[in-house]
Amino acid sequence: MENDFLEGKTQSSWNRRQFLKLGIAGLGITGAGIAYQTLKPQKSLPVRIPTVDSIEPTDGNISPMTILRDFDYGTVKSEKGRTIREFRVVASNSTIKLNSAVDFNTWNFNNRVPGPTLRATQGDRIRVVFLNQGGHSHSMHFHGVHPAEVDGVRPIRHGNAAIYEFDAEPFGVHLYHCHTEPITRHIGKGLYGMLIVDPPKPRPPADEMVLVMAGYDTNDDNKNEFYAFNGQPDYYRNHPIPIYQNQLVRLYVLNMIEFDVAATFHLHANFFQVYRTGRTLVPSEDSDVITMGTTERHILEFAYKYPGKYMFHPHQDAIAQSGCMGIFNVIAT
Ligand SMILES: [Cu+2]
What we know:
CATH architecture of the largest domain: Sandwich
Low-confidence stretches: 1-44
Distance between the termini: 48 Å
Structural class: mainly beta
InterPro entries: Cu-oxidase-like_N, Cu-oxidase_C, Cu-oxidase_fam, Cupredoxin, NO2-reductase_Cu
CATH topology of the largest domain: Immunoglobulin-like
Largest sheet: 6 strands, mixed
Number of domains: 2
Cofactor: Cu(2+); Cu(+)
Family: Belongs to the multicopper oxidase family.
Order of helices and strands: HHHEEEEEEEEHEEEHEEEEEEEEHE
Strand content: 35-45%
Strand order of the largest sheet: 11-10-13-18-15-16
Protein name: Copper-containing nitrite reductase
CATH superfamily of the largest domain: Cupredoxins -  blue copper proteins
Enzyme class: oxidoreductase
Number of strands: 20
Bound molecules: copper (II) ion
Mean pLDDT: 88
Number of helices: 6
């Protein structure tokens, strides 16, 4: 039954290439951000994305390399002239390997940490069909604008389902997470994910990626012993993310680290343009480090001028050294 439930999702989810194929024609670089235009790459059309060997781990988890560029656009329906995006999310449990010696029992959405990156366009109607198979009560609380009855703070017991339906607004980078108490524990176990609401007029084409920073408290001392981008500590340090020189990269970055008040995000040998909470179409600043409190999220855009390998990580080195470390491998063009 659970398989049937998930099967519909697999069949209906568009992968990024399909979406680009449909959406890329006719898009152009807008005049937005004139002051920053000189920082923009000149070769951003068409979008070039290196082939990635996404080796799925044998433990049944989804590779962070897959999570990186995976966007769930839902099942698209039209009802009364409106676009409905229907998403299916199942809460369940799985074990993730934090290093060769430490296994961690996660509570998660759709068998992955972070959960699926749900994506809609402002004005769409979002319908999330949530099924709790996690053994504990859980819920889905979305950031964004919606009525109280779909705010997702009511616990849904194991074996039960709920439907969260609301308009996709406002455009920006948002998130969802379980809001069942103790919330710190439910989030710390892995029950969170990103919700992207695109503006009505799409952003310029780019190599788009999701990076969710999170921590793991493995000994229940209310401190994190491990940290990770997209679930697996040090994954992108050991498997650098290939990108092309001069290609515009758009990072959707979310800080889901509990216990630490804030984390920074630092990019080596470059500057990024900041779209705070993804709420603007023009950047508000450019920097090579940005501070994010828990659940803060931004769009960061950049292109690399020179080929080579470049780190990205929080500049609190204790966090970086405990798993929140990655590398971009910039391929010469
Ligand atoms: Cu929960």
